Amino acid sequence: MIEAAQLVDLQTKVTSLIEHRDFAQIRQVLETLAPPDVAEIIEELGQEHEAVLFRLLPKEKAVEVFEHLPIENQESLMFGLADKDAAAILDEMSPDDRTAFLEELPGKVTRRLMNLLSADERHIAIQLLGYPEDSIGRLMTPDYVAIKTSWTVAQALGHIRIYGHDSETLNVLYVVEKGGRLIDDIRVREILLASPDALVADLMDHHFVALKASDDQEAAVTAFLRHDRSVLPVTDSSGILLGIVTADDILDVAEEEATEDIQKLGGVSALEEPYLTIGFFKIIRKRSFWLIFLFFGQMLTATAMGFFQEELEKALVLALFVPLIISSGGNTGSQAATLIIRALTIGEISLGDWWRVMRREIFSGLFIGGMLGTLGFLRIMIAQSLTGVYGPHWVFVGVTIAFSLVGVVMWGTLSGSLLPFLLKRFGLDPATSSAPLVATLVDVTGLLIYFSVASVVLKGTLL
Amino acid sequence: MIEAAQLVDLQTKVTSLIEHRDFAQIRQVLETLAPPDVAEIIEELGQEHEAVLFRLLPKEKAVEVFEHLPIENQESLMFGLADKDAAAILDEMSPDDRTAFLEELPGKVTRRLMNLLSADERHIAIQLLGYPEDSIGRLMTPDYVAIKTSWTVAQALGHIRIYGHDSETLNVLYVVEKGGRLIDDIRVREILLASPDALVADLMDHHFVALKASDDQEAAVTAFLRHDRSVLPVTDSSGILLGIVTADDILDVAEEEATEDIQKLGGVSALEEPYLTIGFFKIIRKRSFWLIFLFFGQMLTATAMGFFQEELEKALVLALFVPLIISSGGNTGSQAATLIIRALTIGEISLGDWWRVMRREIFSGLFIGGMLGTLGFLRIMIAQSLTGVYGPHWVFVGVTIAFSLVGVVMWGTLSGSLLPFLLKRFGLDPATSSAPLVATLVDVTGLLIYFSVASVVLKGTLL
Predict the structure, then answer these.
(1) How far apart are CA A198 and CA B429, in angstroms?
(2) pTM, whole model, 2 decimals?
(3) How many CA atoms lie within 13 A of A146 on its CB side?
(4) Which residues numbered 50-69 in B keep a CB inside 8 Å of some CB on A?
(5) What is the C-alpha to C-alpha distance for residues A447 and A300, in angstroms, rounded to an integer?
(6) Nearest to B174 by CA among B149, B141, B137, B211
(7) Contact status of B406 with chain A (Cβ, < 8 Å)
(8) A14 has a chain B CB within 8 A of its CB
(9) What is B146-259's CATH number?
């Protein structure tokens, strides 16, 4: 891998070489670079230069570089190249990368490009595109090696020599019975180490893990994490082997999902595009949806405060602590929500654990609320002894703040931890109960708790 | 994989079988289960039952099950088993899993267990443990196959047959020169497909990607994401091949890192243990550290409000909108921080982009602030026309709220997006600028913005 600084140098150098039409020199530079690095250089070139550079790459490398480019560059390159070149690149791409590329394009463009594919490759692409977005089917590549029980090891090796060339990974071979049903997986090492006369059947243990093509990609991430494999087979619902999925594609999925979850937790709809390249109004739309929704929720705080206007007039000191009280509830609430949402996502807890979680959160809330309440009381005690600002009834003010903090923090942890369970229970994504959503919810109810405590504690003194 | 409901059934069944000492039946049940499923059953059994069940497993499966167990069960099992059994399991574990296990244990225990290892295996474990925690060195396994340039394909295949047995993956072979320096990687498929008389040198392209053992594991995640590989070699700083890292281990790292980032964003120190098994006081400590820190920050809101007591007495209506104003700033701030932190983590933006980001955030803040400000003004206008609650000067109140919202939201997006850059600039983890931290920061400054706007707009009417 090359450093960021080197990359900038290379980009400047290549641009100047293109402008001077020094193609031999460019070829030399490109030869020393790995495909992802070439892709990064192309990304930064203008549309007219990128096609020039791309044509200078040897065909096999061009395909690899293409697979590493972001969708916008892939699209503009495809239309910059003559149909013949475009078809060659599409044909050579690995089926899963090609699917990812085609599915990003508008339907009309996809159809045009599909027509450039050879009949065989088109057949594969159509098949992969048939699975719903975010399904395992979209991730799989049909380039695996399947063998039969009745074969000898020598036959299996011969088969690998012929058909292994297209195979995405040769680590594992798949044993299928007549009709294509998957019945076992065998590591290539076992074939390599066995005697040539041994039967495939003798090497089988009939234990294998398979994914379903129609399942969500999250299921694939879970399965890879659980079984520590570098590749897993994919079958349809009747167990027919359709393709394989490799761990590196799963890593991409896991990173994308973590990004989406983090964005949702932060109160943004998932961007689905890089921060710097997403359009200004698109990102504004994704951000303001939640902000406006939350703003309507927050308006209730003004309404709630309005109810207690009389109390505020009598004891203005109550107003001073409003931000402290509601933010403490909001912070503990977002914290609890974050912990629970992640634990639900990675399967550490499931819906059935809600009661264990709630019990735990009640005690956590009580404990943390007790600590913050004590600190709040001390804060008032110290300020009082220094300045006398809270008047003769300062103890009651302190007690109000302390008890409100206990109540608000407990309410924060409880609602923050239960909301994700509720959302999941109703089939929604728990990550929707973002930190800002929980904070807003707790703000409104926190005010009610605060003024209720105040009206009890301060009755007869300030109120 | 088996379903959660099935698992509970199996656990009950196995417990009853152990109590009835029906070992034959247990063996039968265990035979049908994959190692991760057996591990899940063992997790739920008591300490005395777990050892019984474990001894009933065939040795090879026992090792695989052991690797799937959480550290607490591994530890209790190790001490429940006789030294001989324990040594056998340690010897058979794959080096990277063994390292993960040993590094979780207290130093004294690690040393005792190390003594159980065979000399060769101990050598490997000590070597792997020598790398700092979270370095790539800890992830690698030395079970790779290395070949020499001068060999023929037939010699290489013979070498694989002898040394391939221990190899974690056979997908890729590594070409080293005398002294052990890595000079190329060759896919096993190329060896399989080549003529037996061809030289390894003829198959080489001298292009390879390698990781450094002392680098942070995050670098490995980035490299795997970038190069779409299922396995990458690891070298020391002088390029000597030390081992390999496989994509499935990287997937584990990526998931753990996402969990840590999410927890930090939620304002919790990274738990590093599952939510349900971490001790009550440990989780309280991890949670309350930030909450107490933030609480001290929030106390400044009470101080700030105290400064404006006079204004509040004259225009109590200002108090009613305090929660709305500060939360709007907090929400936009956490949103901006979340977006920027994630983009920094996955490398979409780097430190040098701070000015592009800031420019973008200023406009976003202005736009979103404008929307929320308009909504806030409408809210006051509608309430006024229905109830007349804001008195004759309602327009000034509305304007105060609207302008404050624009200011606070702009300030929120700006500080939320710049704080991660600042932290990263000073070598800290950007994720430390959690949503609650940004919210607290914006709360305090938001109050100052609000009351400053009010004192200008309301001068001569309410103030």
Answers:
(1) 56
(2) 0.74
(3) 18
(4) 67-68
(5) 10
(6) B149
(7) no
(8) no
(9) 3.10.580.10
Whether the CB of B283 is below 8 Å from some CB of chain A: the reply is yes
Domain segments of chain B as ranges: 4-138, 146-259, 280-457
Is the Cβ–Cβ distance between B136 and B211 less than 8 Å? yes
8-state DSSP, B17: H
Test B193 with A164 for CB contact under 8 angstroms. Answer: yes
Mean pLDDT per 10-residue run, chain B (463 residues)?
A: 70 83 84 85 79 80 83 78 75 78 71 72 73 85 87 88 71 88 87 85 89 90 87 89 89 89 82 82 86 88 88 89 92 89 85 90 92 94 88 91 95 92 87 80 92 91 77
Convert B160-212 into a string of H (helix), E (strand) and C (coil): HHHHHHHCCCCCEEEEECCCCEEEEEEEHHHHHHCCCCCEHHHHCCCCCCCEE
Task: Measure CB to CB from residue A254 to each of B161, B254, B348 and give the nearest one.
Answer: B254
Q: Which residues pair with B181 in a beta bridge?
A: B240
Cα distance between residue A451 and residue A408, in whole Å: 11
Both structure tokens of B57: 């497993």
Q: Do B261 and A258 touch (CB under 8 A)?
A: yes
CATH no. for B4-138: 1.25.60.10
**3-state DSSP call for residue A319?**
helix
Cβ(B184)–Cβ(B204) under 8 Å?
A: yes
**What's the rounded Cα separation, in Å, for the pair B105 and B110?**
6
CATH H-level superfamily of A146-260: CBS-domain (3.10.580.10)
ipTM for the whole complex: 0.74
Does CATH number 3.40.50.150 belong to domain B280-457? Answer: no
Pairing of strands B231-235, A241-246: unpaired
**Tokens of residue A434, six digits:** 């973002």
Q: At what angle do helices A322-345 and B435-457 cross, to 10 degrees?
A: 150
Measure the CA–CA gap between A100 and B445, rounded to whole angstroms.
Answer: 46
Q: Does A289 reach chain B within 8 Å, measured CB to CB?
A: no
Longest CA–CA span in chain B (Å) reads 98
Per-window interface: A 102-131 vs B, CB < 8 A: none
Q: For residues A411 and A450, what is the distance between their CA atoms, to the nearest angstrom? A: 12
* Nearest one of A18, A431, A284 to B409, comparing CA atoms: A284
Contact at CB, A247 and B252, closer than 8 angstroms: no
Summarize pLDDT for A189-216 with one digit per residue, the tens.
788 778 888 999 988 988 899 999 889 9
CATH class, domain A4-135, is mainly alpha
Triad B136, B140, B142: Cα angle to 5°: 145
- Which tokens hold the place of A115? 């027509």
Cα separations in angstroms, B388 against A118, A228, B239, B383, B395: 73, 67, 78, 7, 12
In degrees, to the nearest 5, what angle opens at C-alpha A279 toward C-alphas A277 and A283? Answer: 105
Tokens of B278: 């971490």
